Amino acid sequence: MEKYYISTAITYTSGKPHIGNTYEIVLADAIARYKRLKGYDVYFQTGTDEHGQKVEEKAKSEGKTPKEFTDEVSSEIKRIWDLMNTSYDKFIRTTDQQHEKVVQHIFQKLYDKGDIYKGEYEGWYCLPCESFFTDSQLVDGHCPDCHREVKKSKEEAYFFRMSKYQKQLEEYIETHPHFIEPESRKNEMIQNFLKPGLQDLCVSRTTFKWGIPVPFDSKHVIYVWIDALTNYITFLGYDTETQSDKFKKYWPANLHLIGKDILRFHTIYWPIILMALDLPLPEKVFGHPWLLMANDKMSKSKGNVLYADDLVEKFGVDTVRYYLLHEIPFAQDGNITNELLVNKHNSDLANILGNLVNRTLTMTLKYFNGNITNKSVINEVDSEFINKINNLDKNVMENMDNLQVANAISEIFEVLRSSNKYIDDTTPWILAKNDTDKDRLETVLYNLLESIRICGILLSPYLPDTSDSILQQLNIKDKDLTFKVDNKYTVNTPSILFERIDIKSL
Length: 506
Known about the structure:
Mean pLDDT: 94
Radius of gyration: 26 Å
Largest sheet: 7 strands, parallel
Number of strands: 19
């Protein structure tokens, strides 16, 4: 069985994650579930990034220890990931003792190798991003990433020799065209960071204590990059001297799924750390777009933040999942508002999907007491319809292989639309009036049930609860993704998949 290791970025424990943060875990979950559906041995890792100055200060302001604070926030993040029905195999925390121990071993190994050295850092420091910048990197005197104010800072620090590996990384990116996607993000990394030349990276700090101590110099704590980025290997059982069977099986990762704003850390810092450790690089790093609130980046200070649990309460888990997966473009930022959610819920989920399942099962029960076999009374309209159903698996797979998740869902909904049109074209209610058309009527309903069955299975990565409900209503266990001519259906009483929502009721 082929393995597939997918990870999200680990979520920083500075506060409750908003719907933009939640988008990433839902997207990763859809990919992981799809790979499992196709028979892969999937390992799906997510979790929380818990050290740093920002956490230390936030905890202090709330009168808590950093550990108490991160315990609470990490639990809240996990609660929301679970609420969104995500099927991760491992939820990690960087405060895990085994992780901390291996991070120290990695730091020591890089130091012993001469890749880490002691120096002094002077630069512009952005607290929210926990990053240093040079004069030339600032944008109008502000942080180039979050555009907030920066402060001049000077301190003793350990540095990682990034420059030593620059050429090696450039060659790797050149010879592995799909390592960074989408293409536009790759060009950004090359032009903005690699071409101007890499500076050595500050990998320790002395101005705060909430971090993993440098093993040979206790006044320093190991800075975020070596601590956070190495989670992708430490929790698989990597150590500098030994490697677990799990690590040997799943590394390198097939996909690191991350926000476009942290692409630099995952496509420059992380590959170079791996090169220094003599480890293979992940197959692909995909920088997904942002989710905007009415065309504006979400931020608590602007008061334009939506939270997953509030949306789930109003719309249900699968509506929120559907919106996140279907409405966010592959390489551009997407928008979310309550109104847009209501429109998609009513038009796609209630009308196209819910209505189709309900109509088909109601007619099956009304005309055949719920028992259907294929009488194979075929008309021209059937061939085109069955052809579409049989092409669906291939079309979904092509899109999922390219991480075009929204397009994969569109393919399924195209067949669902065709199924509704097929009802209009074949007019079962008219066929039911004439006994001589009974076999034709049964064939029509059989074709519709097969379409719903295959669409129901293929919806499972995106709308897992809805998929379960559809297959339970069809009362059939066949998981084949091609149109079968010899299935026997004994359907259950239909239940409403999606009630229409009145925007005024929200």
